[in-house]
Amino acid sequence: MSWTSDLLVGIAETLAAAGVGVWRPDGLYTTDEVGVFIAYMPPGGATGPDRCIVLTDYDPAGGNSAGDVTPRVQVRCRGARNDPVSAIDLASDARDALDGLAFVTFGQVTVSQINHINGTPMGVDGNGRHERSDNYDIQAQRTSALLTE
Description:
The protein is an alpha+beta fold.
């Protein structure tokens, strides 16, 4: 896997280990599970879970170089139908599992700390499911052929 994939999968595994959601690399979930996805918001309903968490990397700090980097990860939560508190609860549980997490290794990624930056409600989708987006700074080490640890 790539550095970024290792980071996102490590976060997905952390959320699953904390009981926040279920992580399956194949993306197959039952309708009553909270599925954890990478970079893809599934339609839900008969084809999968309404409640889900989507992890997406973005990198305003330009962390593609080697050394100490601070990429960011969006944790987007979608709650149950017609339940405005459901997405809030998912985001809160994710924050409890991630905010302040320090000195962990996800594959080839050494993370010194994860910090919650902000969060905001995103409204309601066409199926009555509330959504919320929270953002995290990841302080990590990225190695290259020119940089040795």
